[in-house]
Amino acid sequence: MSLRLSTVILPYRRWHEGGRSAWTRAEQLGFHAAYTYDHLSWRSFRDGPWFGAVPTLTAAAAVTERMRLGTLVTSPNFRHPVTLAKELISLDDISGGRITLGIGAGGTGFDATALGQEPWTPRERADRFAEFVALLDQLLTEDAVSYEGDFYAAHEARNIPGCAQRPRLPFAVAATGPRGLRLAARYGQAWVTTGDPKLYENGTPEQSVQALRAQTEKLADACAAAGRDASELDKVLLTGFTPDRGRPLESLDAFVDFAGRHRELGFAEIVIHWPIPDSDFAADQKVFERIAMEAPSQLT
């Protein structure tokens, strides 16, 4: 199985001061896809520049031609399915059908309270996520939708002409728990994981591989319960959050070794962060570009 290599470009730079050039360079380097985070702010970047995901992806769609684009990931924290569906249909049209929606349950970070609400409990996040994904699926596949749920509603919401991709743009569902994995099995065209967060500080790369293997097995069980073949879902690993941290980007050989171990687990796509100096995603740009250009051919 050949492995696709993608990148995630954080929206922290002004478009005309390095923002645009990163996206165009990503396409030149041959990345399968370039994603961005969909947050109002994020961790150590909170007190610095940070731009919106949808306008950023719209601009990226206008300056690229082949590379897929998307969120990794958006969440219900500050989104509503009705308005998000309209934006996604527009993005898919502008990009010529190149959008993938990475979607997750959200968390307790800055996004969780930015609109003035109290953070949701894990149970409520899971409940909202289930309703959010189901309604969004309906909105993106039907011309008119009316719905009344526990958390979200739609009244004769119109989404004509629908997505450029049919029956809708693909969902890449980020999940590790049982309910999220069931959503991935039912609605996902891909499944996204960052590994086991409990291992990030003190775990080993070997423990991380074992944890990821266990996650893929649970995904297979969820697919079987849904009457679906797990091979129908692409498995996507967003790197930078396993005990390996930035070591896979230290050299081409280090990355090929890392990617090869994870390809054996069934991952079809590995996503690496575009280097950001003086951050958790710091990396040598020349090494990063060499990985982008040379690693895929070594992982076929």
Describe the fold and architecture.
With 300 residues, the protein is α/β, with parallel strands linked by helices. Helices cover 37% and strands 17% of the residues. The protein is built from eight helices and ten strands. The protein has helices at residues 19-28, 53-63, 81-94, 122-141, 178-187, 205-225, 252-263, 285-298, and strands at residues 4-8, 33-36, 68-74, 99-103, 144-148, 153-158, 171-174, 190-193, 234-238, 269-273. The strands form two sheets. The chain has an eight-stranded parallel β-barrel with strand order 1-2-3-4-7-8-9-10, surrounded by six helices. The chain has a two-stranded antiparallel ribbon with strand order 5-6. Helix 3 (81-94) packs across helix 4 (122-141) and helix 5 (178-187) packs across helix 6 (205-225). The protein is globular. The protein starts with a strand and ends with a helix. The model has no long low-confidence stretch (mean pLDDT 96).
How far apart lie the N and C ends? Answer: 6 Å
Q: In oligomeric terms, what are we looking at?
A: single chain
User: Structural class of the secondary structure composition?
Assistant: alpha/beta
Q: Kindly report the spatial arrangement of strands forming the biggest sheet.
A: 1-2-3-4-7-8-9-10
Rg on CA atoms, Å: 18 Å
Segments where pLDDT lies below 50 for 5+ residues? Answer: none
Mean pLDDT: 96
What is the overall number of helices? Answer: 8
Q: Sketch the topology as an H/E string, one letter per element.
A: EHEHEHEHEEEHEHEHEH
Q: Characterize the main sheet.
A: 8 strands, parallel, barrel
Proportion of strand residues: 15-25%
Approximately how much helix is present in the residues?
25-40%
State the shape.
globular
Count of individual beta strands? 10
